[in-house]
Structure formats: structure tokens, C-alpha cells
Amino acid sequence: MTDETRQGEPFDESTLALETLALRAGHERTHEQEHGEPIFPTSSFVYANAAEAARKFKGEEPGNVYSRFTNPTVRNFEQRLAVMEGGERCVATSSGMAAILSTVLALLEAGDEVVVSRSVFGSTVALFDKYLSKFGVTPRYVELDDLAAWEAAITPNTKLLFAETPSNPLNGLVDIAALAELAHRHGAWLAIDNCFLTPALQRPLALGADLVIHSATKYLDGQGRAIGGAVVGRDAELEKLYGVVRTCGPCMSPFNAWIFLKGLETLDLRMQAHSRNARALAEWLEAQPAVARVHYSGLESHPQHALAKRQQRDFGAVMGVEIEGGQPAAWHVIDSTRVMSITGNLGDVKTTITHPATTTHGRLSDAQRADAGISEGLVRIAVGLESLEDLKADLLRGLSTL
Question: What is this structure's pTM?
């Protein structure tokens, strides 16, 4: 093959490593022959004639119709993330919560039930309890790591099992392969929220899950710049989900898709660096007198450390830290920081810190927080890429004065 034809030939994505796919997958160059991915900030597209428009609207001919459901930049992001997760297809959404909502609207109907781990994000609980239940979808909550409880909660009406692993913010885990086997034995789908680890550190589809759900806002972006979500899986389920996004409109904007594409390019390097910093900080925090416990699966003291090593490439950036003295002590540690950002978001190169009981899980009842293990003394830290010594000093300012 000559140099004149080499660049026009497609490459075999199945032969490439994740780091390469994060940079190269999905990009179809335009006639401008751009090196970086272009942004197509247009609401609609034009056709050569009415017959072409009719064919594309009917789906008889591939091409763009309207950016709510066909946009080249969004498609580029979807194709790249699908390959990185090992899925057949991806559908991008306007947020992580929109991804969960779209999944349920696509796959479930009135009378169906979903089994959910208790240790999911507070807004996920509110979505199931306050809104989806109005339309006849019944959630049943179980302990994340109790496979017997998952099975006991399944009824003939159960169509979906939903879990975060690792959980927010206690780093609880479930054996994905075992839960997938359980779901499939009962004719249900398994959806795994993978936003804490991303495909750089965990690939649930390879372990048997049917769907992977992301808040792209977190580590897929990595710099706190945009809101977005995504669902990855088989084409059959994703076609149903695509129909929801096309009709209901919880779509990703082209500009945000371009930001997430840029985030994917450095995902592998960032997740390795996040994990390295987080593990060192967790080990240091375990030795502090004012710390009762550190919830981080990278620690040997974590009860599921062996499982984490088996199904994860590394341990991620998020940890829960129990401070002696309850809410006053936790708030003192948070308020004493000067480097860390006090915010409910995570997934940023900048370290963030928050008090889950009064922020991310504040809409839950006292009983729901207790069931999820969210104590008044719990602080969540999402470790960024700053100097480890600077992060220690930032926390010690509060810890040493309790």
C-alpha cells in the first residue's frame, strides 16, 4: 500500500489498546481533513432534494436529520465511548440522571419492578421513589454486596437490576459477574453505573453486565467543564433507548460532546494518576487519630479489597472518610481546607470535598441515609492531581485542631 492511500484506509479497532482508542476511535474526517475532531453546532441539516430528505427521515438512508438525535460530533463521542467500554453502541444524553431516566423509560413499563442497591446516588433514589413510581415502576432496595438479598428481591415482574460499583461514597462493591449471572437467570437486565472508574479501570460489559451508565460530567470530562451522560450496551437495547432520546429530547449538545471527546483522550493517564494519589492519601488518612475509618477499596483494610483487585484495573479517586465527632467535626475539617474545592461534584483534576449527609444525599430521609451508611461524620473526598503533600497539609489543618 502506498502512502497516498494509507490514511484513507480504516483501522481495525479490535486490535488497538484502550489508550489508542481513546485518541483515535470514532473520528471520521470531513473534506477539510482536520486533525482534531470538529464541532458541528447546528440544529439541522440540508438535503439535495425532497426525496433524499424523505429517505433520511424514514431511516432508509444514513445521514443527519436533526441534532436532537443525529449530530456528527455527538456520534463521534458515542462511537468512541462504545468501543472503549466494549459495547456495540452508545447513546449520549444531557446528563447522567438523563441516562438513567432514558434507560428506564426505554426498557420498563407500568407494573415492572427494578432492584436497586441502597448505596446509589441520592438523586437516583429520588428518581425511582418520587417520579418513576408515579408511572407504576416499583423499586426494591437491597444491600449492594448481598447477592442473596438481590435474589430474594427478584419477582416475576423484575426486569432490571441497577447498581453503582464502587458505590458513592463508601466504595462498596458487588461482584459484577455473579450479579450478571443472577440477573440473566431471572430474565432481567443488569445496568452498572461505571462513572467512578470509567472504562480505564473497569469494564462491566466484559463481566456480563448488559448496560453501562455514565455521568460523563465526572471523569470522562475530568475538568468540571460540562454536563452529560451516556449509556453503552448491545444494539437491541440501545435502539430502544435511542428512541426515547429522539422523541423526548434529553440529548447531549454538540459542544459538550466535543469537550467529552477531549476528556477521553487523557482518560487513561488521568485515572492512573488519580488512583495513585488517592491510594497514598487513603493510607495516610488511616493513620490520623481523628479519623475513625477510611472507605477506599484500594486499602487492604477494605472488606472487598480482593474483589476490587479482581474486577478493577485500579481503585479510582473517591473515598469516604469517617471523622470522629460527627457533623461538627466533619464540617470543621471541610471548612479548614484551603486547596480543596468544597463542592458536591467530583471527577475533576482538582480535589473536591463535601459532606454527603447534607449535600449529595441530603434529600434522603434519615432512615434512607442510615441504610446507605451515610453518617453525620462522613466526608467524601474525590482526590485530584495536586501535590500529595499539599493535600495532606490541607486536611491536617482541620484534623490536627479537632
Answer: 0.92
